Recover the amino acids of this structure.
């Protein structure tokens, strides 16, 4: 199998590549398990720290058609398309968001269509496609009403991928991901960045700002679970995708208050006290428009899975990223 | 008011221009009624037969960025964007459909954004954005699941227009139209073309083919009602659009069998006998994926209206297009 991973130097991209290397094989679109021969790890910055002869690191601008032509060829069996500009950034810079989050996807799909090879394609969508008046638990047939440019761009990708799949130009699966928590590293420009920050920073002995009300309900998935589901999404046969190519992932529904409780329970009261409540209306407006719970019946039927306890999610983070 | 109408030589475009000329004024985006000074009537073929000094006929390719630059300038107060390639054509020629139905809209919105003038914008969307498992009456919060490239392209336009409106690049309204019946003229490549054909051709003394089962339920709107709603959609103030910019229009829900009954009632049994049942699976697949009835609560609240009796719709057609 020849695999392309975009956004390879990002948090999920790197973990996905590590998991694929460990796994060693994937199912091709004829249903046959085949060894992974090459993973093209593409990003605008260089993926470092993975030393495996199967990995070919490539840097470039994903919105550049010439770059895409070299990136995707007739030998590409599968594409994991993770590259994106995060929500607050797409809101702050409309042109950048459109270029990276939408046009690049459109160009990649066009490249694949012109090749005529119909590779497997797994990409991440977002709960940011939803908004407006929402029921407490969002059903699979809920209308899309994005309240951000990021959500709009992801929804347009979903529509394109579904149509390209219907026409057999690509064998696509778009996984609508919950907020991934706990991310390692530094805060980023995602409106949801605080959801990792309020766990990660206190564990690192630093204070962290919570910009939304304590009763804000979030829909979460741990990094390990996200990788499991990305690979599961790839492995499914197209004949199983009876309800379409855009799949609301299962997740863990929890309020910010309960997240902090779980941190207190796992790491102690003095750690949890490092969280400072500091309302930020811009972030509250975006995050508040995202649903806090989903039905996700289709994805559960397809065998996708969710985290069960947030304390486990915190322990996973401590185990993987905390020294000692 | 300086107005641009795309698809001006089409059936709806021509009627809209006639109605606007008769009306003489429109409400600008500050809420002020102003006389119509100019209507730029744009299409790939020349609009003929309307002789009014306020109308400027322009021909060209709507997907050409240079054409758009001349078409839309800082004086453009309102845009009625009706140009499109019909459903069967977009299905048969994927590239053409993407170029005319989606890319042209995207380029026009970009032109408007770069001008920074935030004109009013009314466009037609389609019930073809819906598909898959649908309730008997489609609610306003039904997920979009297009089963055709045409529906996909229209849904992408809707998403873009909503985001451009949210960011105040444009003051947009997308009216999700039922199938417009009875169209004059000849059959076209729309999958729904038969819905006019089974009324129009028998009235003209010709036989007509019905390619779908008699119990197929359609969601219809007469041409006169469509024009009324397009102008109503323009006249609404943006502060009234509390549930978003994409509005499922009200309509008349009726089976093909009842349509034929109405024709028999209005024009006699010998006319209705000119309809031949000839199943066509390709058309049945597309039309069968469209919902036959909508809740349309939002649009009714906003004052959009529907036809009440199909016999009236037929009589409207006879009155307007039948000699004698």
């Amino acid at each position: 199998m020849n695999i392309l991973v975009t956004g390879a130097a990002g948090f999920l991209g790197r973990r996905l590549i590590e998991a694929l290397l460990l796994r060693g094989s994937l199912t091709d679109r004829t249903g046959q398990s085949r060894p992974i021969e090459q993973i093209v790890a593409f990003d605008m910055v260089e993926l470092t720290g993975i030393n495996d002869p199967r990995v070919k690191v490539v840097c470039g601008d994903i919105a550049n058609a010439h770059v895409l032509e070299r990136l995707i060829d007739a030998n590409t069996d599968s594409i994991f398309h993770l590259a994106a500009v995060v929500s607050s950034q797409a809101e702050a810079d409309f042109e950048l968001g459109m270029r990276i989050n939408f046009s690049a996807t459109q160009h990649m799909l066009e490249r694949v269509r012109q090749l005529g090879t119909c590779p497997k394609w797994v990409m991440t969508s977002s709960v940011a496609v939803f908004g407006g008046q929402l029921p407490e638990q969002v059903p699979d047939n809920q209308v899309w009403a994005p309240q951000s440019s990021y959500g709009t761009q992801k929804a347009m990708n979903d529509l394109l991928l579904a149509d390209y799949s219907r026409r057999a130009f690509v064998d696509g699966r778009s996984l609508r991901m919950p907020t991934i928590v706990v991310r390692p590293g530094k805060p980023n420009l995602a409106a949801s960045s605080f959801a990792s920050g309020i766990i990660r920073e206190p564990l690192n002995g630093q204070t962290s700002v919570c910009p939304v009300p304590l009763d804000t309900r979030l829909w979460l998935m741990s990094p390990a679970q996200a990788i499991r589901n990305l690979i599961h999404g790839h492995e499914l046969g197209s004949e199983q995708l009876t309800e379409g190519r855009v799949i609301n992932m299962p997740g863990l529904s929890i309020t910010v208050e309960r997240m902090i409780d779980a941190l207190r329970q796992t790491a102690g009261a003095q750690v949890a006290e490092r969280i400072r409540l500091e309302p930020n209306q811009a972030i509250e407006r975006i995050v508040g428009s995202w649903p806090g719970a989903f039905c996700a019946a289709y994805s559960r039927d397809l065998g996708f899975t969710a985290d069960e306890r947030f304390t486990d999610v915190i322990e996973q983070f401590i185990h993987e990223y905390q020294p000692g």
Remarks:
- Chain A touches chain B through 24 residues (CB under 8 Å).
- The mean pLDDT of chain A is 95.
- The first helix of chain A runs from residue 11 to 23.
